[in-house]
Amino acid sequence: MSLILIDERSLINILLVLTTLSFSQSIGNDSLYYWGGIVNKDGALVIDFKKIDNTSGIYNIKKISDFKKYSKGDAGDASFFTIPKADVANLVTSKQLEEADYGDCYLAVYAVYDNLYGLIGYGAKAIDEGDIQPSFTAMVKNGPKKIEFKNLPDGFPEASKKLLEQYFTFPQTCEGGFSNIIFGMNHEGVTDAVCHPNTKIPDDTSKCADGSKPKYYLKGYKYATFYDVDAAGLKDLLTRFGPVLILSGPKLSYYDHIK
After folding, report:
1. pLDDT tens digits along 110-153
2. Nearest to 184 by CA among 44, 9, 10, 39
3. What percent of the chain has pLDDT over 70?
4. Which residues form the signal peptide (predicted)?
5. Is CB count within 10 Å lower at the N or C end of the chain?
6. What percent of the chain has pLDDT over 90?
7. CA 95/CA 204 separation, integer angstroms
């Protein structure tokens, strides 16, 4: 299993019909697997069954080729890099986390352990030219508070709907808010921890801690899973989506980013 960042707005053809894909269907190496739904103005994650292509109502499966390339890079060009090699070591994302960067709020630490810290930080640089330490506390604050379902298929059991609504909770806290990151990024984007420090959940993400206006990156993006691509497929992903996180084989680790 491996991860990339995707923007559904870059889909060449967005399918608005419900198909018969099974929730447990295996995914080919030509497809991506990711959470459906968007966060509305009331802070609810809305799963609309008319806008997904998976009968589970939660996950989408789409062909990699359905997404436009984010860059002008060519998969056959050996000189293409999502970020110039000489720049990587000097990026804010590459710097070691100090205890003062997270304090008693371990969201950023969890993100390092889960390898999302680098994916989001380097993604902000490659896609939006943002040299930042991602604010995971702001993403949690901008994420959903609850889940809602629309246009459920005929015969969908009410008990199952209530069970899903109870199961998917999204606490906006340092302890339980990690599941909010993907949705907060999609809803509002990613800010710099200088603006919204990772030491606590901000009360208001419309302004930075110093009162200035936040700059957001990667708004509209989610992360998606892909499987079993070969070297050519990986090059295509890099030119199509930007930085890629490989979790199969020897697991990448950013543990040395934390003191």
Report:
1. 888 888 899 999 999 999 999 999 999 999 999 998 888 888 87
2. 39
3. 83
4. 1-26
5. C
6. 41
7. 27
Distance between CA atoms of 3 and 7, rounded to whole angstroms?
13
Amino acid letter, 52: I
pLDDT higher than threshold 60 for residue 188: yes
Q: Which two tokens stand for residue 206?
A: 């419309």
Distances, alpha carbon 252 to alpha carbons 140, 175, 245, 256, in Å: 24, 24, 8, 11
Angle among Cα 87, 134, 65 to the nearest 5 degrees reads: 75
Q: Residue 244's closest CA among 133, 126, 97, 129?
A: 126
Which residue intervals of the chain are DSSP H helices? 85-88, 107-113, 116-128, 136-141, 158-167, 181-188, 231-241
